[in-house]
Design goal:
- By secondary structure, the chain is α+β, with helices and mostly antiparallel strands.
- It contains 5 helices and 10 strands, in the order βαββββαββααβββα.
- It has helices at 16-24, 79-85, 127-135, 137-149, 186-191, and strands spanning 6-12, 36-39, 45-48, 59-60, 66-76, 97-109, 117-124, 154-158, 164-169, 172-178.
- The longest helix is centred in the last third of the chain and has 13 residues, at 137-149.
- It starts with 5 loop residues before the first strand and ends in a 7-residue tail after the last helix.
- 32% of the residues are buried.
Length: 198
């Protein structure tokens, strides 16, 4: 079994469409797939430049609890990204970004632990990409920026250890852990989010 590190962004449940719309701005332009229509809970429809389980057939999540997408996202090149690409000068887009491969996205609508929110979990496809998730400041910045642009309350990095790294919390970039001095457990972290539904 390889490493499956992931970034998890928590947004208010009503912000999922906003988060996915912001995500499309990060999509690799070289990732040529037919557009995918997604129907979200509540009936909102979006067209995204990704696949779901590597298929482009419309996905109806209007009564479901989960959405799975296969994404390809662009990142600015830092030393860790350059090393991962294994070329001194990777092919960049007009904004100086590069795609690093598939990143699997699982959207959980109103999960049991925090029903007023939704979770967008971005999982690395390989062990090498997992290590890159942890090492690259550029990748962390993209997920923090996506959290902010989506009106998210929290961004976590899961490195399959006993602790989660908190990257973003309530509008601020931070470097803390759960468990840690401030949050003894995940429940304590959830209680810090605004407008929590009990």
């Amino acid at each position: 079994m390889g490493l499956d590190y992931s970034y998890e962004i928590i947004v208010p449940a009503q912000n999922v469409a906003r988060a996915l719309t912001k995500l499309t701005d990060l999509a690799a332009r070289t990732y040529r797939v037919p557009p995918l229509t997604v129907t979200l809970p509540g009936g909102d429809q979006l067209v995204v430049p990704f696949t779901s389980n590597f298929k482009s057939e419309a996905v109806d999540c209007s009564t479901g609890s989960m959405l799975e997408l296969d994404t390809s996202i662009m990142f600015a090149v830092d030393d860790a990204v350059r090393e991962f690409c294994q070329v001194p000068d990777p092919k960049l887009d007009e904004l100086g970004r590069v795609a690093i491969g598939y990143i699997y996205l699982t959207v959980r609508f109103a999960p049991a632990l925090h029903p007023g929110y939704s979770s967008l979990q971005f999982t690395a496809a390989t062990s090498g990409m997992s290590r890159l998730f942890e090492r690259s400041a550029s990748i962390r910045a993209v997920f923090n920026d996506l959290t902010a642009a989506s009106g998210g309350v929290c961004c976590l990095l899961d490195t399959e250890s006993d602790t989660f790294q908190i990257c973003w919390l309530n509008g601020h970039t931070i470097q803390e852990t759960v468990p840690g001095p401030r949050f003894a457990g995940f429940r304590d972290l959830v209680s810090a989010w605004p407008d929590q539904e009990q």
